[in-house]
Structure formats: C-alpha cells, structure tokens
C-alpha cells in the first residue's frame, strides 16, 4: 500500500496496531524504549527507528501509543521529538487516554506546527489490537481522516467520528474508562465472593455470561481470574491513571462519581500491595487476600 506509517510506543496496544499495519502491506516504522519490543517488531517485518525524529521523517501517518499526556508531549515536542522532523501535512493520531484539556492542547500545538492531528483514544484490549479490530473514539478535521484512512482501516473495526474538535475523543474515552474500571472492580468483587462460598469459579464465569449480570469486563477479565493468569495485557497501574482522570474530570464538573472513586481506591490499594504491574484483573487478588480467600495463580 502506497502510504507509510509510524507507531510510537510498542506496548500491547501499539504493537497490535503495528502488526496490523504490516499485515495490511503498509510500510511501518516503530519506536519503543524496550529492546525486546524493537526486536519483536523487526522480526515481524517492521522497521525500528532510533528516535522519534527519525520515525517522523519516514512516516506520513504517525500513531502515538505512549502512557500519558506528559509522554506524548515529550515524544512530539521534546528534544529529538517527532514534530520538528515531520513533513507538512503529516497526520498524528493520538491514541492515548488523557484529560480532554490535554488532548485539546496537544492537538492545537500540532496544528500550529503545520501538521494534522486526530484525537483518537482506543478501546478493545490487546487481543483486538492484535487482530486489527479495536474501536477508535476519534475527532479531527476531515482532511486528516481522509489522509489517514488506510491506516485507520488496517488497525480498527470501527472508527467513531465524533466531530472536528479535538477533545471529543478524549471525553468519550473518559466515559468508557469510567465504566471499564467500575466493571473490573465489580468482576473482582463477584469472583471473590463466589470463591468465599466455595463455588466453582469456571462455572460462575460460564453461567453469568448468559445472565443479566454479565459485562464485557466480567467475561474478559473473569477468564483471567479463572485461569490464574495475570499477564499484564492492561495493568493495574493503567487503571490507577485512568480512574484518576475519570474522577478528576467528574470533580471538575461537579458530577457525583462515588463508584469511580471507590474503584480508584481499590486500584490504588492493589498497586500499593505490589500488584501494579500485573493485569488489572489482579484487583481480585487484592480483594481475595483481604477476605482470606485463595484464588488460582495467587502466589502471594
């Protein structure tokens, strides 16, 4: 395909996007601080870049998959950043969960620099990212979407166009993360209660998925608890960050968010217990230890 792409941040979501681009025949450059991620990307046929500036010099559409707004600003505008080396008209697709005000500021700075920006946080998890089946909550100018179309089609199942104004994607992601974090906490609480009643967790997981109490997070993260597998596809510490964004946004709007506040406290407590780098389903381990219940995979 006659377009070149770059991916900054080859974590579980960024790597999934990069591999999806390669499968679509799009020449793809990738950047990550971790040597193992760069090596895996190269083995898949990608072209590792030494820094953000070198990546931007070779890419027409650049996906940014770093952790937070501070890292976005660093890789775009810091020393050796991508923006100074980018060609006019390059499209930057910002796929990071952040405060809407940060998304608005970053996109405005990109436009002032003569490049285009799409505010496009994503959802779907590592498995859907690897399949090119994520959902994108995106806002930005029509021209940016047109130029980036082959790239967006390669990495996503659905692109929700939320208007031309940056920040709309970030606001939608706040709502998504509010629900996701609460549902993870509910899953953890339910599985621990079931374990305390000596119920078969695999049976609980199977039955509830056909009942009204099910959620996507119960189905997905509950499977991690049943298997005792806390490989960090999305870590506890990610939800410490994201639920902090949710509660800060709610506080600024004077919108009550008691469930979000409770979920944030639980994620923070799990992180403080040493579970921060484990899968976010490890919230169940934290609650199980408080209840004196042993879950599969609990070595603590």
Automatic annotation (TrEMBL):
Keyword NADP: yes
Record field: catalytic activity: L-threonate + NAD(+) = 2-dehydro-L-erythronate + NADH + H(+)
SUPFAM superfamilies: 6-phosphogluconate dehydrogenase C-terminal domain-like, NAD(P)-binding Rossmann-fold domains
Protein name listed in UniProt: L-threonate dehydrogenase
Molecular function (Gene Ontology), one example: NADP binding
Keywords in alphabetical order: Carbohydrate metabolism, NAD, NADP, Oxidoreductase
Function, as annotated: Catalyzes oxidation of L-threonate to 2-oxo-tetronate. Can use either NAD(+) or NADP(+) as cosubstrate, with a preference for NAD(+).
InterPro entries: 3-OH-isobutyrate_DH-rel_CS (IPR002204), 6-PGluconate_DH-like_C_sf (IPR008927), 6PGD_dom2 (IPR013328), 6PGDH_NADP-bd (IPR006115), HIBADH-like_NADP-bd (IPR029154), HIBADH-related (IPR015815), LtnD (IPR050006), NAD(P)-bd_dom_sf (IPR036291)
Ranges for domain 6-phosphogluconate dehydrogenase NADP-binding: 6-163
Enzyme Commission identifier(s): 1.1.1.411
PANTHER family (UniProt xref): 3-HYDROXYISOBUTYRATE DEHYDROGENASE-LIKE 1, MITOCHONDRIAL-RELATED, L-THREONATE DEHYDROGENASE
Tagged with keyword Oxidoreductase: yes
One GO term (biological process): organic acid catabolic process
Active site: 173
Family: Belongs to the HIBADH-related family. L-threonate dehydrogenase subfamily.
Domain (3-hydroxyisobutyrate dehydrogenase-like NAD-binding) ranges: 167-284
Organism phylogeny: Bacteria, Pseudomonadati, Pseudomonadota, Alphaproteobacteria, Rhodobacterales
Organism of this sequence: Paracoccus halophilus
